[in-house]
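Input record, target 12 of the design panel.
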């Protein structure tokens, strides 16, 4: 099985039609991708800032408390 994970920064779910929004945001590509793929309703985050959250996902380690905020690098 092949998996593609898209991480979008600064997108609020209350503006996305795939989550039932009626806001006037125009997101045809995200809507089309959601129709063809899987939309998750719940998630839990180990690190809120962008780069530590990406590091958590790519390495499988929750390490925002172990490393300073920054790019993905060995700790």
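The sequence produced for target 12 reads:
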């Amino acid at each position: 099985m092949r998996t593609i994970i898209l991480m979008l920064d600064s997108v609020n779910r209350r503006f996305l039609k795939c989550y039932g929004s009626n806001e006037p945001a125009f997101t045809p590509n995200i809507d089309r991708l959601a129709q063809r793929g899987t939309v998750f309703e719940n998630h839990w985050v180990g690190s809120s800032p962008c780069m530590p959250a990406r590091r958590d996902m790519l390495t499988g380690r929750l390490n925002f408390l172990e490393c300073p905020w920054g790019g993905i690098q060995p700790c």
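The chain has a mean pLDDT of 77.
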